[in-house]
């Protein structure tokens, strides 16, 4: 019995009415090729029995959605854990057909944030970042949106922008929760309460401060809130700020670390032997904050699980790719209160 002749790329090109270069791009998944042209090429390849069925179906599948996550560079352990979760989530994200990349950027300089958005947005279909509240950042987001790049804000939102969704906890509610915990834990004592933020240029940190101040004023008027300090989520800077606060306010009974770098605050409290007299609440369950909870320096951690943030972001991106409502099947990120006795 004679075997059918072996088909080659020129045969497919002739049958599909395209060039051999176009056939090569379609069969190897290289862009750009119009969808209708790609279908013609694959149909011709199938009719000529050029491709085994499995390879044909692989060729028919669109390439994975390219997603870029821009996270602040620095010593923030929680954000490093989030980056590690994104990098290590290959098997978990396989059903979504996405390819995630993590880039660490200077997040406190608006010009550099805007530049990073434009640079990474050129190579991605979806981009998620921890937003800095600034007109230049907002302009970059709006430009990407006009170019068809889906932009999500992560952990901290960006007002009046064309981002498609925000992924993270309700930051004002988080600040109110921290105030309630400190006020209740302080009890009948009177004294000063302080806050250390990463940067109030983060809308999320500003909202936490606002929620904290409002509830303190309403529920615990006997406690005096001193001005917020900004430590840029750096542990060493937070250590110096906490030492200064303890020196300036000997009656300090509560301290709320709004952003990262809680280990620096804990170091200062222990150095001054104030870990049992000062109620300390922070954000983000990391190896450092876990250790501070266990030794009693830290009283409570407000946490949003990194994997929940990642999965919510990916679900939003895939909904957008499929033309569905962005929030379909996506639950809100909840605030988790972690105490020493409830450590997971």
In one word, what is the shape? Answer: elongated
Distance between the termini: 68 Å
Q: Can you count the helices?
A: 14
Q: What is the highest CATH level, the class of the largest domain?
A: Alpha Beta
Task: Tell me what you see in this structure.
- By secondary structure, the protein is of the alpha/beta class.
- It folds into three domains: 9-60, 434 Repressor (Amino-terminal Domain) (Orthogonal Bundle), CATH 1.10.260; 65-168 and 306-333, Response regulator (Rossmann fold); 171-303, Response regulator (Rossmann fold, 3-Layer(aba) Sandwich), CATH 3.40.50.2300.
- The protein is built from 14 helices and twelve strands.
- The chain has helices at 9-16, 20-27, 35-47, 53-60, 77-87, 90-93, 110-121, 135-146, 171-186, 203-219, 235-248, 262-271, 287-294, 306-321; strands at 65-72, 98-105, 126-129, 150-154, 165-167, 191-197, 223-225, 229-230, 252-257, 279-283, 300-303, 336-338.
- Strands 6, 7, 8, 9, 10, 11 and 12 form a seven-stranded mixed β-sheet that branches.
- Helix 8 links the parallel strand 3 (126-129) and strand 4 (150-154).
- Helix 7 packs parallel to helix 8.
- The longest helix has 17 residues, at 203-219.
- The radius of gyration is 26 Å and the shape is elongated.
């Amino acid at each position: 019995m004679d075997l059918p002749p072996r088909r080659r790329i020129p045969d497919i090109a002739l049958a599909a009415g395209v060039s051999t270069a176009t056939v090569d791009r379609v069969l190897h998944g290289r862009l750009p090729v119009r969808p209708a042209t790609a279908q013609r090429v694959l149909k011709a390849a199938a009719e000529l029995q050029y491709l085994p069925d499995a390879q044909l179906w692989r060729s028919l599948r669109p390439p994975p959605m390219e997603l870029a996550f821009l996270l602040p560079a620095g010593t923030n352990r929680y954000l490093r854990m989030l980056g590690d979760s994104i990098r290590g989530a290959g098997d978990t994200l396989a059903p979504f057909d996405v390819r995630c990349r993590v880039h660490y950027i200077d997040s406190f300089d608006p010009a550099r944030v805007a530049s990073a958005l434009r640079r990474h947005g050129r190579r991605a279909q979806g981009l998620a970042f921890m937003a800095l509240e600034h007109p230049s950042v907002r302009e970059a987001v709006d430009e990407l949106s006009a170019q068809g790049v889906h932009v999500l804000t992560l952990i901290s939102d960006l007002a009046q922008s064309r981002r498609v969704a925000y992924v993270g906890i309700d930051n004002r509610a988080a600040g109110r929760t921290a105030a309630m915990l400190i006020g209740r834990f302080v009890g009948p004592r009177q004294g000063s309460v302080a806050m250390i933020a990463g940067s109030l240029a983060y809308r999320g940190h500003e909202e936490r401060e606002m929620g904290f101040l409002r509830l303190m004023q309403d529920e615990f008027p006997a406690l005096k809130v001193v001005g917020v300090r900004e430590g840029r989520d750096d542990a060493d800077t937070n250590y110096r700020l906490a030492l200064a606060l303890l020196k300036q306010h000997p009656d300090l009974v509560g301290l709320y670390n709004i952003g990262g770098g809680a280990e620096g605050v804990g170091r200062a409290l222990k150095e001054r032997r104030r870990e049992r007299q000062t109620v300390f609440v922070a954000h983000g369950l990391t190896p450092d904050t876990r250790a501070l909870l266990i030794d009693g320096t830290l009283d409570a951690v407000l946490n949003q699980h990194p994997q929940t943030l990642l999965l919510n972001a990916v679900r939003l991106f895939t909904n957008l790719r499929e033309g569905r409502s962005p929030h379909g099947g996506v639950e809100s990120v909840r605030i988790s209160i972690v105490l020493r006795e409830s450590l997971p």
